[in-house]
Amino acid sequence: MKKQAKKQLLVKSKQQQMLALLDELEKDFKAGQLSICLSDGAQDETLINTVNTGIYSDIKNILEKHRESISQDALNTCLIKASESGQKLVLILLIKSGANVNCSDQYGNTPLMACAQRGYYDMSRILITNKADVNKVNNVGDTALLLSITKFGSADMARLLVLGSNVNAKNNEGYTPLMKAVDVGDLEVIHILILNGADVTDSKGGETVLEKANKKGIHFFLNVFTDCKILKQPTLIAAVKYRDLNLIQTVLSYEDGCIDQGSSKGETALEVFIDLILSEKKGLSPEDKRIINLLILKEYNARKISTPNKKNQQGAKKLPLVKAVQIGDVDIVKWLCIAGAQVNDPDITSKSTPLTNKWTPLMSAAKEGFFEIVELLLAKDADIEIKGAEGTALDLAMNHDHLDCAKLLIERNARNAKSEAFRLAIQYNNLTVFLHLISTFNKDMKNLLYLDWSILFNSENIFRILLDEKPDINQRFCRSHYNPKSPIPKSVCLLHITASYNHLQFTEMLLHNNADPNVTDSNGNTALFYANKDICNFLLRSGADVNVKNAKGQTAIFSAIENRMADVVEALLEAGALINLQDDSEETPMFKAIYTRNPEIIALLIKWNANTKTVLKGGHSYLTELLRLPRVFYYSHEARDTQIIQHLLASSNDINLENEDGNTALMLACNIGMVNVVQMFVEHGADVNFVNKFGQTALSLSLKENLNIVKILLTSNARFNSILHCQQAVFFFINRNDADVTQLALGRGVYPFLVKSDYPGQLIFHKGYRNDDNDVSPLSLALQERRYKIAAYLIESRFLTNYDVTKLIQTDEFQEFTLRTEKSNIFNNLLSLYTLSFVQVSDLHGATPERESQVLFLPIPQPIKQQLLFQHLDPKQR
Predict the structure, then answer these.
(1) DSSP notation for 399-448
(2) Taking Cα atoms as reference points, which of 235, 241, 334, 236 lies closest to residue 293?
(3) How buried is 19 (Cβ within 10 angstroms: 0-12 exposed, 13-18 middle, 19+ buried)?
(4) Comparing C-alpha atoms, which of 774, 826, 836 is closest to residue 802?
């Protein structure tokens, strides 16, 4: 023990001495303190002989005492001798004393070449640190790197020398370092050279590096190392792509820790290899299987070393069980399970992938039909309830017709949720599996839920088998998969389901097996309520009653109209459906058709003599009902509504029937803005001056953006019936600058008026918009709004107030109007005695609806009466 301790102290002392020398050497170089003899020195021979002895203390003594007596050549010679003999401390001492690290012997070999060839790694590093030239060549063209490559060479030496070296430099014989490395078969050095740019296509004597490697049986390694460099992948990742066991074993043996290195995508070598097998689709060879076994074992051992506790194991990378299952070899799955793979870990491609895209090993095995693997995974407690985008494992097995796997999964599923297992068997229309379940779990085949599922999934074979068992098909039952949004209720009979799903064939089978065509569901509906035309006709031939009422007092025709099924409506009418029946809400089939806005069905009902004169709730006719519902009205429906109105008008509908608000169909159409409909109503004799309970007329309701309706009404002798509506109309027409409508309105309840500044009606003229608090007349408003064409017409027509001929003519607005107009005769006549007298009489009779009766009783000529009522104007001018 004492001897060993003494030896360790000696080694430690030598190491400390060497480090001190290196430090001192660096300081001397920086300080430039080295001084040597430039010619032959008196102590040259002594130094050379002493270096040959290898006694460090003697060499140091000579260099310290006789430095100036030693020549550069002697120092260089000694440096080469020390390099050849591996004298590390002497090498440092000579470099410190000024020896040239790039000197050479008679063969051109430098100290670095001598150290590299002999494997002196530390001495080579010291020389390179002191600026030794790694690219210097000897007399035969060898570099230090080329000389370092031997059968007993070190990869560390190659790693040191390759930095800064020309790795493709050839010697006089055409050899490159890579060629020599191939010759000696040093794989690690080959790897280092290729990673640092060695050219694998170089040749010597017509033979390339790859051809030379092929002869040696190591060409795979060159390909792997080249792939590593090009693809920037770890060695093992590149190696597994060649599917060569020997290659992979060699890489695992010489490169420690390579099993833990992942690809650029983060995949392990095992994952990359499995992906390769699956993508190349060449099948699994015995060698492939041995490779997978080797990689699993290596990964397992690496995990045991790096993650010894459970906490670390949770963060470890998962084994690729899902991918491995796809190969279809139960042994591989078994190995992975033994190595710790979790059978219920879902494979999710990214963090953003929704949970519905889960994919478990069991799903993969079930989809591919790998029975033994399914059996193994179930034995390992694989969860059969996990559901992905394509359903559960059982869904996948059934969908891909793997009956053996399906039976296995269903039996496991049935123990937990028997009804779900039966539903899946029916869903995939698999009679074999269904009967297997019935026999295994001793189930009653008369269960109506099975028939319900058969209809739902269109499983005809199973449906027929179940009908043969003579179940009570007229019994009402509660559906297990009820959808509240479905038209049919939860408690139904089978016939209602087949009709609602438009399954004619299933409906026929039920009726042939004595299903009652008039059986009702919990809402009181028969199958006719849900039938399309084909099923309707078959039900009618089987004795279905078209006038059975449901809980709302409605018959099948109501449902057909609501669903806009004109062909079914016609079939029901032909079978005797009551066309004018009122339900519990006093609604008729025609009302339902109006509400659904279906011209075809309305025409059909009218053809079958539906009563279109029925007065509905609120006093509505079918016309007003159609027009009163803004919640279902859109302008895109105007053409369809126009077509419906044409049908109703053709059936002698009372066009002037008023609803509870006193509105007629014309008034509602005006309020909505339906120009074509208004024109149609006027042509059919609608009363254009009808007044509702709020004092409104069609005209007052039409004072909106579209003036076309106003023009239609005015040309049809419509009149304004209140001064407020008159004032509103005048403001609207002037503000819109529509002279035509203004001219049409004069004399139709629109007469000259003056709104005082303190009168509430002033608000009609948007007082906040005006610049003063003056009184307002139609003329003053036209001038303020600069509607000069309208203003001129009002003056010419004497549509004036006393305010206009007394105060207004003095305002700035009037003066501006005077300057802009060219009709000077207007102003010459404005203050004529006749005009002033006319205006005085006009003002006396006001602008109320009574004006006409008052004027007619005046003892004045008829032409003057017409002028006071503005009836003398040429209609073409209006």
Answers:
(1) HTT-HHHHHHHHHHHHHH-HHHHHHHHHHTT-HHHHHHHHHHHT--TT-H
(2) 334
(3) exposed
(4) 836
Cα separation of the two ends of the chain: 134
> Given this model, what pLDDT does residue 305 score?
61
Task: Calculate the alpha carbon distances from 191 to 214, 225, 522, 690 in Å.
Answer: 16, 6, 81, 103
- 755 beta partners: 776
- At 744-803, the pLDDT tens digits run 888 788 888 887 765 544 444 444 444 455 778 888 888 888 888 888 888 888 888 888
Q: Tokens in use for 862?
A: 């008829």
In 3-state terms, what secondary structure has residue 689?
coil
pLDDT in tens, 128-164: 999 999 999 999 999 999 999 988 877 889 999 998 8
What is the per-residue pLDDT for 13?
59
Run of H or E including 492: strand 491-492
Question: Helices (DSSP H) in 204-258: which residue ranges?
Answer: 209-216, 219-231, 235-240, 245-254
pLDDT digits (tens, 9 = 90+) for 25-52: 555 544 444 445 545 677 888 888 988 8
Tracing tokens 């042509």 back to the chain, one arrives at 683
Give residue 274's identity as a one-letter amino acid code. Answer: I
| Range picked from 532-536, 656-660, 692-696 for highest mean pLDDT | 532-536
pLDDT tens, position by position, 720-741: 888 888 888 888 888 888 888 8
Q: State phi, psi for 631 to the nearest 5 degrees.
A: -70, -20
Distance separating alpha carbons of residues 247 and 233, to the nearest angstrom:
16
Residues 6+ apart with CB under 8 A from 605: 569, 573, 579, 589, 590, 593
Please report which confidence band the pLDDT of residue 417 belongs to, taking 50, 70 and 90 as the band edges: low
Per the listing, tokens 């002191």 go with 130
Is residue 76 within 8 Å of residue 102, measured between CB atoms?
A: no
Q: What is the dihedral of CA 360, 361, 364, 367, to 10 degrees?
A: -90
Q: Contact, 63 vs 35, CB < 8 A?
A: no
In sequence order, the β-bridge partners of residue 203 are: 208
The single residue listed with the structure tokens 């209720």 is 489
Q: How many CA atoms lie within 13 A of 877 on its CB side?
A: 13
CA separation, residue 816 to residues 797, 808, 813 (Å): 21, 12, 5
Q: Which domains does the chain have, with CATH numbers?
A: 19-200 (1.25.40.20), 723-877 (no CATH)
Strand partners, 776: 755
